[in-house]
Design goal:
Blueprint (H helix, E strand, L loop, with lengths): L4 E6 L7 E5 L7 E5 L5 E5 L13 E3 L2 E3 L6 E3 L15 E2 L1 E4 L2 E5 H10 L1
Antiparallel strand pairs: 1-10, 2-3, 3-4, 4-8, 5-6, 6-7, 9-10
Length: 114
């Protein structure tokens, strides 16, 4: 794995139908989700509606329900399901030998912009 990717955790460290939070300084945290099929997604831990912590939401299929107002957010895109509107930032995820990696450039860039 190149320096472009940062090792975050083992896939088993993410609860199925749940999330693990990656803390960042000077920026919003990142939530890494795992659905029932074992697919892994990463989003900024902020609902586009009122900023609720998506990491505390319920994962179902390829969506997470925000714990504040039950908005459904698509995990692959970070966008709210119609009729709701708005998107949260998504992060590129790579799995290799059951290790979860996030793109280092995205983590840094979004840390500056958030």
């Amino acid at each position: 794995m190149t320096q472009e990717w940062q090792a975050i955790c083992h896939i088993d460290d993410i609860p199925t139908l749940g999330a693990r939070v990656v803390k960042r300084q000077a920026a919003r945290d990142v939530a890494i989700f795992k659905n029932a099929e074992g697919k892994v997604f990463a989003l900024l831990d902020k609902c586009p509606h009122k900023g609720g912590p998506l990491s505390q939401g319920i994962v179902f299929g390829e969506r997470v329900a925000c714990p504040l107002h039950n908005w459904n957010i698509e995990l692959p895109s970070g966008c709210a399901v119609t009729p709701d509107e708005g998107c949260t930032q998504k992060f590129s995820v790579r799995l290799e030998a059951d290790q979860v990696y996030l793109n280092s450039h995205e983590l840094l860039t979004l840390a500056i912009e958030s």
